[in-house]
Amino acid sequence: MITGRVTIINSSADYYRIKRPTIVVAIKTHPDIVLAIKYVQAIVTELNNKLCHAAIIAREYDIPIVMGVEGVTKEFKTGDKVTVDIKRKMIWKTW
Amino acid sequence: MEDLVIELFSCTYRMDLAGIKKYLEQLWREYQVIINGKPNWKQINRARAILYFIGHIYPEWIAVQSLERRVRFIKPSITLDLLLIAVDRNDKKVMKKYQRSEVFQKLVQYYKIVKNIKNRVVNGTYLDEATFNKRYKKLQPKDYY
Predict the structure, then answer these.
(1) What parts of chain B have a pLDDT lower than 50?
(2) Taking each helix axis from N to C terminus, what angle separates B17-36 and B41-52, rounded to the nearest 10 degrees?
(3) Contact residues of A toward B, CB < 8 A
């Protein structure tokens, strides 16, 4: 399980604002994620596919990923503290 | 595009890697010619179809299914997840273990071909989506629905 602060990705510009460890939450990822990759603790996406960009990036950089979390970009906001359970594919707010 | 797609499917059924690469590249080139030229509404929608096909339908549906169907023929058995991880992390141990498996080697090459197209970044976006979006928006009729 990974606990950290959420960064919601709405556009590629959001990756440039990442300056500390974070859990990236997005519908799908963008090439610019590699600019912030050293800060990415985990990736959570709404899309779910073994060959989507997020899955490839996660494998290449050995980053934990949970895919197919419907509505996750609306459920959380940037700065929320969350826990991601990779095995059970769950994410929840941590206080 | 229609013939290229049919040929691509045919090559995929046969796992003809050279053919798969050839037709994917042809689709990519046609897409580039359209978006970098002076397309009309019909042409830009052709580019849209190609973009959707080579960026989503082919890699995320056709290729995944092709890999899933064939990965079970690899001996000793390996899951698709482990195969993809081995490729993406360049896991030499796994690669060595399967170096004599023709099916494994072929699927690895196939995945690399598909990934090469899928992950192509031009002008800061995958498959030059930024240029495509700009063109598409300009040409979109006001009464488009």
Answers:
(1) none
(2) 150
(3) 12, 30-32, 49-53, 55-56, 59-60, 62
- Rounded to whole angstroms, how far apart are CA atoms A6 and A77? 7
Instruction: Tell me the domains of chain A and their CATH numbers.
Output: 2-93 (3.50.30.10)
Give the bridge partners for B121, in sequence order: B126
CA B4 – CA B25 distance, rounded (Å): 10
pTM: 0.91
In the structure encoding, which two tokens stand for residue B131, read together? 């240029």
What pLDDT, on the 0 to 100 scale, is given for residue A55?
A: 96
Give residue limits of the domains in chain B.
Answer: 2-139
Nearest CA-CA distance, residue A95 and chain B, Å: 34
Interatomic CA distance for residues B12 and B35, integer angstroms: 27
Looking at residue B1, its pLDDT comes to: 64
Task: Look over chain A and give the mean of its residue pLDDT values, rounded to a whole number.
Answer: 95
B89 CB within 8 Å of a chain A CB: yes
Written as six digits, the tokens of B143 are: 């009464």
ipTM of the complex: 0.87
Confidence (pLDDT) at B145: 87
Q: Give the minimum alpha-carbon distance from B59 to chain A in angstroms, rounded to a whole number.
A: 6
What are the backbone dihedrals phi and psi of residue B90, each rounded to the nearest 5 degrees, phi first?
Answer: 50, 55
